[in-house]
Design goal:
The structure holds 2 protein chains of 2 kinds. Chain A is of the alpha/beta class. Chain A has 4 helices and 9 strands; from the N terminus they run E-H-E-E-H-E-H-E-H-E-E-E-E. The termini of chain B are far apart. The chains are: A alpha/beta, B alpha+beta.
Chain lengths: 188, 87
C-alpha cells in the first residue's frame, strides 16, 4: 500500500487514458442513459465514476475505473446542501432543480478510496456525463459553473463526458472543474 | 492510539500522509488534535453537512456537539469522507 506518495495533480501536463478504459466509461454512460440499471444502483440516468491511476513525472496514467452505483442526492443532509447549491448556481433547464446534480454515497466512496489505496492507485479524478445540448454550449463537453463550484478544492480532475451525440462521445479533463485548467487526454 | 485515514484528495493537507495516529479518548479530542496539527484540513469544516466520519467502517450519526460523547478505543480506525459531487 502506498501511504505517503507525494502527488500534486495540479501540475500534470497530460493524462493517459488507455482506450479499453475509455470504452468502459462510454459503456457505463450509455447503459445509464438507456435506463439499464444494475441491482442496487440508483435509478437515475446519470453516470459518474472515479479514475484511479499512477503519476509518472508530469503525466498521470489511468489504470482503473470505479463505477459509482449510488446517488445520495436525495439523502439528508446531502440533499439540503445540494438543493442550496442548485438554487444558487444551476442555470435554467427543463430538468427540475430537485432532480439535478449528483453526489456520491459516502460509504461507497470510502470503500472506493480504500480499494485505490490497496492497489497503490492515486485518485486522479471523477467523471460524469452531459447529455443535453445548450444554445451557448452545444457540445456540453466543458464543466458548468455548477461543476466548478462542486469541484472547488477537490484536488481532482473533473472529466466531462459529452453524450450529446451518443455516436461520438467526447471526454475532456479539467483540474478542479476550471475550464482554463484543462489538461489534454492521450488515448494510448 | 486511534488511526485517522486521510482520503487521497485531502492528503495535500497532511504532507501526503495517509494515516495519522492520534492519542484521544473521544472523537471531539481527536478532531481538535488533528486539525491543530494539520490546519489545512480545516477545509472539512467549511460545509459540515458534507463531512462523514466512519469509525471502523461504521458511519457516525452525531453532530459535532456530540462528538465528545463518542469514545475511542486503541486502534480504532477513523475515516473522514467528503463526498464528490457534480452537476
Amino acid at each position: 500500500m502506498e501511504t505517503n506518495q507525494m502527488i500534486d495533480l495540479s501540475r500534470l501536463e497530460n493524462i493517459v487514458l488507455p482506450p479499453p478504459l475509455w470504452e468502459q466509461i462510454k459503456a457505463h454512460c450509455k447503459r445509464k442513459l438507456a435506463g439499464d440499471y444494475l441491482p442496487g444502483e440508483t435509478k437515475v440516468k446519470r453516470a459518474y465514476g472515479l479514475l484511479g491511476g499512477k503519476v509518472h513525472g508530469d503525466s498521470a496514467v489511468i489504470e482503473k475505473i470505479f463505477f459509482f452505483k449510488k446517488n445520495a442526492r436525495m439523502t439528508e443532509p446531502l440533499k439540503s446542501y445540494m438543493d442550496g447549491v442548485m438554487e444558487r448556481y444551476a442555470v435554467a433547464s427543463k430538468t427540475p432543480l430537485s432532480q439535478r446534480g449528483w453526489i456520491t454515497d459516502p460509504d461507497e466512496l470510502r470503500l472506493c478510496y480504500d480499494l485505490c489505496d490497496r492497489e497503490g492507485l492515486a485518485v486522479i479524478g471523477t467523471y460524469h456525463m452531459h447529455i443535453v445540448p445548450w444554445d451557448h454550449d452545444p457540445l456540453r463537453d466543458t464543466p458548468t459553473k455548477l461543476d466548478m463550484v462542486l469541484a472547488k478544492n477537490s484536488n481532482l480532475y473533473c472529466f466531462i463526458v459529452s453524450l450529446v451525440d451518443p455516436s461520438q462521445p467526447i471526454i475532456r479533463a479539467f483540474y478542479e472543474g476550471i475550464k482554463e485548467n484543462e489538461v489534454p487526454i492521450l488515448f494510448e | 492510539m486511534a488511526r485517522v485515514i486521510i482520503p487521497s484528495p485531502l492528503r495535500r493537507y497532511t504532507n501526503y500522509r495517509r494515516e495519522i495516529k492520534i492519542e484521544a479518548s473521544d472523537l471531539s479530542t481527536l478532531m481538535e488534535s488533528l486539525l491543530a496539527s494539520y490546519q489545512g484540513l480545516s477545509i472539512i469544516r467549511e460545509q459540515p453537512a458534507l463531512l462523514s466520519i466512519f469509525i471502523n467502517g461504521r458511519l457516525v450519526k452525531a453532530d459535532e456537539q456530540s462528538w465528545n460523547e463518542i469514545g475511542l478505543k486503541e486502534d480504532d480506525e477513523i475515516s473522514l469522507i467528503i463526498p464528490i459531487a457534480g452537476g
